[in-house]
Amino acid sequence: MSKTGVSIVAYSIYLGSGGLGMALIPNVLLGLLGLPPTPEPWIRLFGFLALVLAAKGINGALLNLVPVMQFDVYTRICFSLFLTALIVLGLAPRIMFIFAAIDFAAAVWTQVTLVAAKRRAVSTAT
Q1: Are 76 and 103 contacting, i.e. CB atoms less than 8 angstroms apart?
Q2: What per-residue confidence (pLDDT) applies to 121?
Q3: Nearest partner of 21 among 12, 9, 30, judged by Cα
Q4: Residue 126 belongs to a domain
Q5: Is there a contact between 54 and 12 (Cβ–Cβ < 8 Å)?
């Protein structure tokens, strides 16, 4: 597996495990973050969606679908910026900045590996 694939799989494990937790035991995870419990189903839906996105990421990494992995970088950066905006506007608690930072750092890691792979491909082609 490529280094880019490794970065995607690592991020997908993080995303999937958090998603699984939010789908199955959301109030435990909310409590760990100092957030109030909720009976609402939306948190479980969000968790399952995260799990689905993680599975898609792993699939793209295993198949070495570079355009999909590049698009994943863009979506993670957008998510981290959106979450940061929610925090700045006072619509999300500051603890959520941890997740924005993780998403941004993981996106940078993946982008660095994509650029390095492209440089290697160009240098070996010449």
Answers
A1: yes
A2: 85
A3: 30
A4: no
A5: yes
Contact 114/67 with Cβ under 8 angstroms? no
The domain tally of the chain equals: 1
Q: Match 């981290």 to its residue by tokens.
A: 80
121: left (phi over 0), alpha (psi -120 to 50) or beta: alpha
Q: Is residue 16 in some structural domain? A: yes
* Residue pair 2/70 in contact by the 8 Å Cβ criterion: no
Residue 125 lies in a domain: no
Which letter does DSSP use for residue 92 in this model?
A: S
What is the mean pLDDT for each group of 10 consecutive residues in the chain (126 residues)? Answer: 95 97 96 92 96 96 95 97 97 94 97 94 80
Any idea which residue has 């479980």 for tokens?
44
**Is 55 part of a structural domain of the chain?**
yes
Q: How far is residue 110's CA from residue 31's CA, in Å, rounded to a whole number?
A: 31
Exposed/middle/buried for residue 119 (C-beta within 10 Å: 0-12, 13-18, 19+): exposed
